[in-house]
């Protein structure tokens, strides 16, 4: 999971945020989330800021909608408060259960493709084109080969089932960049963690901006994405650990509350929503079954705070392979979708392709949630559509209207 210490500042830095502050906030938020999971839920599941959420914040909200990052962070804070309240009232569990598994899997896969697309761009492998929108980048650019090298190193290690493959790949790519002179040597390696001052409390100070109707859509999407992000991962990891009992996860309420509290704290400090990390499966695979595993992760994140100077050597070309490989892992969710049923395949497909093609995670989710109830109804399966899905149907119509996707009358 250590890669998030460098990838999160890289992604949020593209939104104009201070990378040093984000490094520290990422570590502190991860420490808090892991400690809560250890002592509150006693699960071997680690928590840290999620990759999909930071990509949505930067590329969809700040760069896509033109909302300044302090204003967008206010939206994250409000969503976090609502999120914590809904988790406490167990509404989160009810809504998650109402979303069909096929759409949940489509959302995970779509975010994976979107993240991989961002990595391909950051690494220079994919570039903009006036004639075809996108095209392959120039292979004569030396830094692009750093990304290609990193992809192959991580892919080979993953295929060999080497623990920590992504982090090892980041280190190897960085070393190659330093040796070849493509990356400047850092002035030092160890130092005290950078101050959180540039981001701490910024969202809270800009709360008044949430009154803007455009921000309602931002709050709603952060709320929805956070809703679905952790639940599926928790259940999958619980199954791997043999924790599930009668198809239910004991203490799931405490686990969700751990995620909610860390998300709220992170929004105050200045980072995007947290999530349970699928990389926790590495710890479970070697015997982790209790909160001692997540406690260990928290301690190691604490030690990691000493290495902030390495941020200068972890460039976009270094982090790009991590984004691409994580995208590959997330796209594996496609196998869980019932592609043989068109009324399911169509909404799932629109969800998956809508995210990268519109460069906006929220639009992909909206496309799926708007088509699913309609196609299920005309297919004679209306009774299988939970009433909550119809509520979300109208919520997303309102969302698209607010985002000016649907022309005003």
From TrEMBL:
Assigned keywords, A-Z: Cell membrane, Membrane, Transmembrane, Transmembrane helix, Transport
PANTHER family xrefs: GUANINE_HYPOXANTHINE PERMEASE PBUG, XANTHINE/URACIL PERMEASE C887.17-RELATED
Question: What protein is this chain from?
Answer: Guanine hypoxanthine permease PbuG
Q: Name one GO cellular component term.
A: plasma membrane
Q: How does it sit in the membrane?
A: Multi-pass membrane protein
Q: Which Pfam families match?
A: Xan_ur_permease
- Could you tell me where this protein is found in the cell? Cell membrane
Q: Which domain of life is it from?
A: Bacteria
**Is Transport given among the entry's keywords?**
yes
Per the record, the coiled-coil ranges are none
* InterPro entries, A to Z: Azg-like, Azg-like_bact_archaea, NCS2
Please provide, alphabetically and separated by semicolons, the GO molecular function terms listed in this UniProt record: purine nucleobase transmembrane transporter activity
Q: Which residues cross the membrane?
A: 20-40, 47-67, 73-91, 103-127, 133-158, 165-185, 215-238, 292-312, 318-337, 349-375, 387-406
Q: Which family does it belong to?
A: Belongs to the nucleobase:cation symporter-2 (NCS2) (TC 2.A.40) family. Azg-like subfamily.
